[in-house]
Amino acid sequence: MTTENAVEVSNLTKHFGEVVAVDHISFQVKKGELFGFLGPNAAGKTTTIRMLTGVIKPDEGTASILSYDILREGLKTKQLMGIVPEMANAYVDLSAWNNLMLIGELYGVPKRQRQERASKLLKEFGLYERRKNLVKGFSRGMKQKLLLCMALINEPQILFLDEPTSGLDVESQRLIKDMIREFNKNGKTVFLTTHNMEEANQLCDRIAIINHGKIATIDSPERLRLRSSGLQSIEVSFDRAVSVDELSKVHGVKEAKKTGDKIRLYVDEPGVVLDKLVDFARSKRVKIISINTLGPTLEDVFLKLVKES
Ligand SMILES: Nc1ncnc2c1ncn2[C@@H]1O[C@H](COP(=O)(O)OP(=O)(O)OP(=O)(O)O)[C@@H](O)[C@H]1O
Ligand SMILES: [Mg+2]
After folding, report:
1. Which of 221, 237, 268 is the last residue of a domain?
2. Does position 1 have pLDDT exceeding 60, yes or no?
3. Mean pLDDT, the chain, as a whole number?
4. 278 and 163: one domain?
5. Is 195 in the pocket of ligand 1 (CB under 6 A)?
6. Which of 119, 173, 259, 300 is the most exposed place for a label (fewest CB within 10 A)?
7. Which atom of ligand 1 is nearest to the CA of 43?
8. Does the beta carbon of 194 sit less than 6 angstroms from any atom of ligand 1?
9. Same-domain check for residues 38 and 182
10. In angstroms, rounded to a whole number, what is the distance separating the alpha carbons of residues 272 and 267?
11. pLDDT, tens digit (0-9, with 9 covering 90-100), for 106-146
């Protein structure tokens, strides 16, 4: 087995009754890589993370973390990883500080070190002033930040995060993304799941797209975007109703769809079409109220990938 890879997964499979949550997936994550697992609800992201982090056993297949087998050497793999699970698991009747002390002790971090690391982490996440408060009084964002502190207290080699920014405000999202990048800067590996394509674009070196328990593709964000370049679109709204049919005939528009009070135009070159739209509005004597160019959505990329396969 090569030592280049932080994660090696072969044929990993999990059923829940009739449902095949994860269906014979295979992939590798290189050491030091920031790897994203991107997919819609029920795609199998959490099930994959739960198998890799030893919470549930696969029905079939094997996986190793930093060359240790997840089944035969589960304890060793757990000592190397930090985990931020999908569901918050801080003890709500303990303070933030005591949560960190408890988890540090479980990982065998000596007392002085756990205190030093806890102080540093709480300060970095802006929670230090609230360290003595019970977690039950924490907001969702504060709880999520504390979970990240807890995942980092044992200085892991690899960090697993299941939708780390889901449901958080923009500022909290940014802080968490910065901390993930910072962790990764030191050559450590990150495995994160998200259903947010833009987040995956901003953070990841490579992205696996998972759907219905299967990996549809693995590529860098930039190459994925290029492969989906035909899915650029322009969202436009006018001061009066305009025929979608007529808009679909504007030069450079491949398809026009009504979405709420706006119309979405799928195009190859937004720049060219923007000019034509202005001409169109003038000739029809309507005013453009808003206009936005949009990249492909996760849904768009999926549809394209499904069509391709
Ligand atoms: N403990 C379980 N018991 C029964 N079915 C389960 C269980 N865990 C997951 N599943 C099923 O497996 C499939 C994949 O679920 P999973 O939680 O892995 O999806 P996900 O990609 O993490 O989705 P989300 O974005 O909603 O978190 C779903 O159909 C789900 O209902
Ligand atoms: Mg999930």
Report:
1. 221
2. no
3. 92
4. no
5. yes
6. 259
7. 21
8. no
9. yes
10. 9
11. 999 999 999 999 999 999 999 999 999 999 999 989 999 99
**What tokens were used for 137?**
């009084």
DSSP string, 114-133: HHHHHHHHHHHTT-GGGTTS
Q: 70-92: per-residue pLDDT in tens?
A: 999 999 999 999 999 987 679 99
In the reported structure, the alpha carbon of residue 94 is separated from the centroid of ligand 2 by a whole-number distance in angstroms of 26
**Interstrand relation of 60-65 and 5-16 (parallel, antiparallel or unpaired):** antiparallel
pLDDT digits (tens, 9 = 90+) for 89-113: 799 999 999 999 999 999 999 999 9
- Contact call for residues 256 and 193 (beta carbons, < 8 A): no
Ion ligand 2: residue ranges with CB closer than 5 A? 45-46, 86
Ligand 2 centroid to Cα of residue 46, in Å, is 4
Residue 58: CATH number of its domain: 3.40.50.300
Residue with CA nearest ligand 1 atom 8 = 47
Atom 12 of ligand 1, nearest CA residue: 21
Q: Which of 18, 22, 46, 299 to mutate to test the pocket of ligand 1 (most atoms within 8 A of CB)?
A: 46
Indicate whether 123 and 85 sit together in one domain: yes
Task: Tell me which of 221, 241, 265 is where a domain ends.
Answer: 221
The token pair that represents 264 in the structure block: 């979405």
Specify whether the CB–CB gap between 36 and 206 falls below 8 A. Answer: yes
CA of 86, closest atom in ligand 1 = 27
User: Do 131 and 121 form a contact (C-beta atoms < 8 A)?
Assistant: no
